[in-house]
Specification:
Blueprint lengths: L1 H15 L19 E3 L3 H9 L5 E4 L7 H4 L2 H8 L3 E4 L15 E4 H10 L9 E5 H4 L26 H10 L3 E5 L16 E8 L2 E6 L39 E5 L3 E5 L4 E6 L3 E8 L5 H10 L4 H27 L12
Parallel strand pairs: 1-2
Antiparallel strand pairs: 2-10, 3-4, 5-6, 6-12, 7-10, 7-12, 8-9, 8-11
């Protein structure tokens, strides 16, 4: 019996790799500014923002990072000008937010575009690029990571290797470099129910966010339910998307040295107001694991596989919750992933 259950749940786990890419309505926030905090303890963050699923900006959260004094467009041009990569130049309005393919640049010529970028003629946006793959030498420049991003179950080891590979990819730190006038191509929430932590290193951004309870106005794509079909938050087509007129955004700025916590299922997008450098990391833990369970089960067409997926993920989540409670009781927060399957 248990062998058959494992086979079924393992099969479900394999099936979920096709769906994990992109929650619950727990928000009571309405229009207003996002709270800005300083010297925010982990305990305060956990009780006031993480579990209530409430966004916050933490000032000074990156205070010890070398990157704050080093990372500028000119720094990347000088130190990594020969690095080559692809950027999608015409992705606005496409139903996805991962950048695949496009035009190849070296970093030196791309930085020239970023510096010259204007509202009328924005540069392409270098985004969602894996920092440690492209620039492994820069790892020490963003240490230590803020405590708020732990524990992160995305980086754990899992019984099904391929599932682990997919989830581990979600935990990778991503880099964004863009110029004035550029913007994130779509309104979205981060896939698989993850929280997003966005850390601003250089320049200024404007964020536009919508709480989960405004999802009825978001026009989610049928094939990518975490991506809105609304063409623009500034000039939406109300004839095509009439309900979007009822959506009320929360708008705010993010400046160097600040960390933005965008909780699970909060719709958001961003505009770049000056040459900008940002890093981000996604997080899954006890606070939002149920969102992953829901995300996967709702996207399984086979009812048996949907149930099996829930069983597999529920067991995985319960084990990790128990592990984290033990480690917290022993005075630690960072999990020992070697002990958990």
């Amino acid at each position: 019996m248990y062998h058959n259950l494992f086979q079924t749940t393992a099969g479900a786990a394999l099936a979920l790799i096709a769906t994990v890419s992109g929650g619950s309505d727990r928000s009571s926030i309405r229009v207003g500014d996002i709270e800005r905090r300083e010297d925010l303890s982990y305990e305060e963050f956990s009780t006031q923002y993480l579990y209530p699923n409430k966004p916050v900006i933490v000032k000074g959260a990156l205070g010890k990072w070398k990157a704050l004094n080093r990372w500028t467009p000119e720094f990347f041009k000088k130190e990594f000008g020969d690095v080559r990569f692809f950027v999608n130049d015409s992705e606005k309005g496409q139903g996805g937010y991962r950048s695949d393919g496009g035009t190849q640049y070296n970093l030196a010529e791309f930085i020239d575009l970023v510096v010259a970028s204007t509202d009328e003629h924005p540069a392409p946006y270098f985004r969602n690029q894996l920092l440690y793959e492209l620039f492994p030498a820069l790892k020490d420049d963003i240490q230590p990571l803020p405590d708020y991003v732990q524990p992160n179950w995305l980086s754990d080891r899992y019984a099904v290797k391929r599932v682990g590979e997919i989830l581990n990819r979600g935990a990778a730190i991503e880099l964004y470099i863009g110029g004035k006038g550029s913007s994130f191509p779509v309104l979205h929430y981060d896939g698989a129910g993850t929280h997003a932590f966005l850390m601003q290193i250089h320049g200024r951004k404007q964020y536009i966010v919508y709480p989960p309870d405004q999802e009825p106005f978001m026009y989610a794509s049928a094939d990518k339910p975490n991506v809105s079909r609304v063409n623009s938050v500034d000039c939406p087509d109300f004839e095509k998307f009439p309900l979007f007129a009822k959506a009320t955004p929360i708008t705010f700025f993010l400046d160097p040295g600040e960390l933005l916590f965008v909780p699970s299922h909060w719709w958001h997008t961003a505009k770049i107001l000056s040459p900008s450098i940002t890093v981000s990391i996604n997080v899954l833990n006890q606070s939002n694991w149920h969102e992953l369970e829901k995300y996967v089960s709702l996207r399984q067409r086979n009812p048996l596989m949907a149930v099996a997926s829930q069983v597999y993920l529920a067991m995985a989540g319960a084990r990790r919750s128990f592990r984290d409670r033990i480690r917290h009781r022993n005075g630690g927060r960072q999990p020992d992933t070697r002990l958990v399957k």
